[in-house]
Amino acid sequence: MTIGAAIVLALTFAPYALVSRARQAVTTYIHVPLGGSSGSTVPASAVPAPTPAAPAFDVAGWYAAREDDPARHALLAQSADGRATLAEHNADVVYNPASLVKLTTSLVALRKLGKDFRFETRVFIDGEVDKAGALKGRLLVSGHDPTFGDFHATLISKKLAERGIKKFEGELVVTPDFVFNFTDKPEEAAERLAKVLKLTPKTWALSAPPTGEPAFAVLSYPLRDILLYMNAHSSNFVAERLGAMVGGPEGIRQYVVDEVRLPPEQVQLATASGLEVNRMTARGLVSVIRALDDEARRQGLELVDIMAVASGDYGTLRRRMVGTPLESAVVAKTGTLVHDDGGMASLGGVIYTQKYGKVYFVVLNQGSDVAVARQATDQLLAEITLSQDQPVPIPKPEKPRHQLESADLEVLE
Asked: Are residue 109 and residue 65 in the same domain, yes or no?
């Protein structure tokens, strides 16, 4: 059995050794920045982490050995204390980070709102309930919870029934920012709400949030759960609405410049979700991940509480790194754009390892073949890790985590 195990291990790691030898024949190159953007070097004083030793892994050579233009890629992988750099390539050149922008939104939202923040959807009952249980008047629902959906509406229905309301003959009113199942068109959102409530309102209308005390309120999932859902599924809908609450793209940009100390010329944010044209560097994004980890731990969380486990959770990482040495050892966020900047396929997060503990990393890939870029990223990260350390899988749940469970909702009366 011992001999058999040795043979299996040899076969597992042989491809990595072969590629490693192949890339040693390739040297450096001259990088050409993305069109419409410029690269610059981060001054040492602007980098939060200590200056690390030169990386041992030749990333440019790795891409060149695959006949892939190294100028289309950027990468940085550092130990959590910043003293060891496992790999670095184009780390100070700006690229479109795609949905890795959501990591900046996560950081600012967690910092400003707190892990236990909950959206409040308030329900007002304006009218009388007759003996048959029919409400004659208006039912007003006010809120801007971006995750409001069937579970929330079911709770409202239950609370109305407790108040003897079985039928509704009147006007259903919602606020202009009310959403339902990720639909922010007021008329459609109101119709969906009425359907779940099993009500047949005569009319529906929009209204500013009413004053006074509501009959009751449905509280959303806590922010930590919303962040996990947003990052695991890369929800642009949720990211844009969370971002709007903490200053929008410019407010988020100003935060990472002021608090994370990123060079202003290396941060351009058009959206809070990563859609459209944004600009950041791999080094800047690693600093954001480091700051996000610090803020999470300050609030009693780990990155795994707000980001998905590769191969272990539902979402965009569900099938990533399955069967590789990094399976269940990576907690990360994906970034994908199909059209802007010729297409982007990015990945950023943390690799848990034996020697260094946490290794923060960001990989930015420009090119139209997203599937090929994802596969190459997974292989490259595995080779970088195995060349200097050993990955350590984190405990894996029996089933992938379902985000936004109904049991996590609360009612305030």
From this structure: yes
